[in-house]
Amino acid sequence: MPIYEFRCESAHEYERSVPISARDQDLTCPRCGATARRRISAPRLSRLGSSAGRLLDRTAHSAHEPGVVDRIPGARPTAARTTTDPRHARLPRP
Ligand SMILES: [Zn+2]
After folding, report:
1. Which domain holds residue 57?
2. Each residue of 18-77: pLDDT tens digit?
3. Which strands sit side by side in the sheet containing 27-28, from one edge to the other?
4. Does 91 reside within a domain?
5. Does a structural domain hold residue 30?
6. What is the pTM assigned to this prediction?
7. Does 45 reside within a domain?
8. CA 17, CA 37: separation in Å to the nearest integer?
């Protein structure tokens, strides 16, 4: 996500990484709580493509759409043994 500059009514300036689709929404100033509007400036896109930028984008994305996993990432799947009856081992397998 690009970084935009915001300025509140009390002239506090700060930068925030905001999705392009939400760039025109007003934010709350972290220092005084007043409404902060985006300043017209060039979005900082230089971070895009870097590993730090990808990490920040992935973190922001997972906040809204967390991934669902069925095992620990990187772990090998283990076959669940459900029976100890030896006759079940002779049953046909799919
Ligand atoms: Zn402020």
Report:
1. 3-64
2. 888 888 888 999 999 999 999 887 766 666 678 887 888 788 888 877 778 777 878 877
3. 13-17, 3-8, 35-38, 27-28
4. no
5. yes
6. 0.45
7. yes
8. 14
